């Protein structure tokens, strides 16, 4: 079984939906221990998605190292303001896909520039974006996602991981 580690800080749809169509083990990291415990216990994220349950097989932890242990891919579901911090904690750097967009405050860098500066130019990485809304993904509703990466292998992995829902298209074009 392949593991996908998810790092999240704040509002985001359930990352376990990404692997809903295939044999993926999903681990979810929540920054605050009390938040991780609440999600692990109830299988709901009452703060942001009270109507959507996560799969019971999802490992939920406040220990990032444990969440990404043996992971083949990390989904960084953070605001841009938290991306650098999460990427710096990945040791060793793993293939990473971020879900945020915008500019980093202070530096003015875009997420791919933050990743290159933090992890190095050769790190396998990409951006996962809509057109979709986190609530649609969390509820398992029909939606579309786009994975942009210069790495063909990472794009192929994204397509395989989304074999059922949500469907994921991949591109090398700027987003």
Task: Explain what the structure shows.
The protein is α/β, with parallel strands linked by helices and 175 residues long. The chain has one domain: NAD(P)-binding Rossmann-like Domain (Rossmann fold). Helix content is 28%, strand content 28%. It contains six helices and ten strands; from the N terminus they run E-E-H-E-E-E-H-E-H-E-H-E-H-E-H-E. It has an eight-stranded mixed β-sheet, sandwiched between helices. A hairpin with a 3-residue loop joins strand 3 and strand 4. Helix 3 packs parallel to helix 4. The longest helix has 10 residues. About 8% of the residues have low confidence.
Notable characteristics:
175 residues; single chain; alpha/beta; 10 strands; Rossmann fold; two-stranded antiparallel ribbon
Element layout with pairings:
Blueprint lengths: L1 E7 L15 E7 L2 H10 L1 E2 L3 E5 L5 E3 L2 H5 L2 E7 L2 H10 L6 E3 L12 H9 L5 E5 L4 H5 L5 E5 L3 H10 L5 E5 L4
Parallel strand pairs: 1-2, 1-6, 2-5, 6-7, 7-8, 9-10
Antiparallel strand pairs: 3-4, 8-9
